[in-house]
Each structure stands twice: as C-alpha cells, then as structure tokens.
Amino acid sequence: MTDYETILVETRGRVGWITLNRPEALNALNSQVMRDIVAAASVFDADEAIGAIVVTGSERAFAAGADIKEMESKSGLEMVMDDHFGQWSRFAEVRTPVIAAVSGYALGGGCELAMMCDIILAADTAKFGQPEINLGVIPGMGGSQRLIRAVGYYKAAELILTGRMMDATEAERSGLVSRVVPAADLLAEAEKTAATIASKSLPSLYAAKAALDTAMETPLAEGLRFEKHVFAALFDTADQKEGMAAFREKRAAEFEGR
Ligand code: CO8
C-alpha cells in the first residue's frame, strides 16, 4: 500500500482505516494531510472490497483544525489562486460510507472534516468547535454551512460567533454526533459499526449515501424524486433479489455487491 507522510492506513476486513498521525501538531490539517487523506480515501473508494471507511485521530485530538502556521502568512490572492484546501471536496464526495471516530479535539477544520463524514462517533472526551473567529477568520472548510444543517441556525451561530467548544454530550444532544461512547471503547465501536455497514450490499450503500447527500442539498420534492428513482434502480441488482429472498427464507443475506 502507498506510503503516506501524515496518516496511517490499514485495511481490516472490508473496512479501510485512516488514522491522522501528526501528534506534534494535534493532527492539524496542513496541505499534506489533505493530500494524504484524499488519496487514501480515493483508493479505498475505488476498491469494491471496501464497504466502509473510518477516519480517526489520536486520543488527544481528532484534529485541532487547519494548520494555522501554514496559513498564517498567506494573502487572500494566494488562498484563491492555490485553491488552498480545495481538494477537501473530493473527500466529501467519496461514495463509500465514512465514519469519523472522534476523541479529543475536533476544532475548526477538524470539526469540518468530521462533518464531511456520514457518521460521527464521539468518545466522551471529544470536544467540538469552530474557533476560527478567535483567529480573525471564519470556518473555511464547510463549517458555516454544514454545522447549521447539523445543529440548526441558533446553536451553529452561537458556536461560530463565540468560538466556544462543546463537549460530546452537548454535541450529541445537538445532533452533531451520532453516538457517544466511553473513550476506551471508541475504536472498537467504530470497527463494529463500520463492519456492520460494510456487510451490506455496496450498491445500496452508495445509493443510501447519495440519497442522504441529496437531502442536504435539495428541496424536499426534488429529493423525493431522486429517492424514488434510486430506490427503483436497486431492483436491478442481484443483491436486492438476494436480500428479499433471504428475508423470505429466514436466513442471513449474502451480498455480492452486484
Ligand atoms: N495549527 C497548527 N498547530 C497547531 C494547531 C493548529 N490548528 N493546533 C495545535 N497546534 C500545535 C500547537 O502549536 C503546539 O505546537 P508547539 O508544541 O510546537 O507549540 C501543539 O500543536 C500542541 O498544542 P498546544 O500546546 O496548544 O496544546 P494545548 O493542549 O495547550 O491546547 C488546543 C490544545 C486548545 C486545541 C490548542 O492547540 C488550540 O487552540 N489549537 C488551535 C485550534 C484552532 O484555532 N483551530 C482552528 C484553526 S483554523 C481552521 O481550522 C480553519 C479551517 C478552514 C481552512 C480553509 C482554508 C481554505
């Protein structure tokens, strides 16, 4: 497997693991981290033997944001011309379901990276926030848009305007976090959830993720039309026939990803 500078990459069964590995900077997201994560996620996404991806960090930090030291001296023109961080959109577009397993800080770009994933599992030590306002800027990797969709306008506005952090309990109550687990269980829970997802039919996983993404972006009527077409299309898969036959025959389905 390719060597990456800033992440560790591993395959366990049908689950691809990406572990951020810049402990000296609390996994701050510099351009190399972005290139590494996007490349690793793309490799997993192209591999039909992978049915789910987990992105995680260390106990202390999922990621403490974009790398402030890398950005500090840039001009606005450079940010535009380099399309600094432009590749993150490719990560958000992977078709394979992605779980963020968050322990410790998920701040700024770290929180935004988690929000590019489909499920956020949080250790009880997790802390989420968009502290960019404290640096004289605003969220730049989707935070001002995705956080509102996750927690509603007023909670998002308070977090973004004050820059305060919220703990895992508040994040779960607010709808940002799918589930909170004891820190010691985080990776095992992520593995279990990812393996459950990865055992499903790959075409139906792609379809479900596309339908969920569509719901974030379109008015209801358009989303319902999209869902109806994708639902119907799945009836041309062998896995739909297998899934429904298995139900009728009272046995576990064996999906082939076809
Ligand atoms: N960037 C660079 N280095 C960082 C970052 C960061 N975001 N966060 C931590 N580090 C470094 C520290 O500088 C320190 O390095 P050193 O030992 O060399 O001084 C090391 O990591 C450990 O950090 P601390 O000593 O600060 O650890 P503490 O436990 O005292 O504090 C905190 C932990 C509270 C997480 C603190 O480090 C902190 O506040 N970090 C910054 C959080 C932040 O502001 N994040 C938002 C960054 S801006 C952003 O994410 C914008 C995203 C959009 C970009 C879009 C571009 C197009």
From TrEMBL:
It catalyses: a (3S)-3-hydroxyacyl-CoA = a (2E)-enoyl-CoA + H2O; a 4-saturated-(3S)-3-hydroxyacyl-CoA = a (3E)-enoyl-CoA + H2O. Its EC number is 4.2.1.17. Pfam families: ECH_1. InterPro entries: ClpP/crotonase-like_dom_sf (IPR029045), Enoyl-CoA_hyd/isom_CS (IPR018376), Enoyl-CoA_hydra/iso (IPR001753), Enoyl-CoA_hydra_C (IPR014748). Keywords: Fatty acid metabolism, Lipid metabolism, Lyase. CDD domains: crotonase-like. Transmembrane segments: none annotated. Belongs to the enoyl-CoA hydratase/isomerase family. PANTHER family: ENOYL-COA HYDRATASE, MITOCHONDRIAL (PTHR11941:SF54), ENOYL-COA HYDRATASE-RELATED (PTHR11941). This is Probable enoyl-CoA hydratase echA8. It comes from Microbacterium terrae.
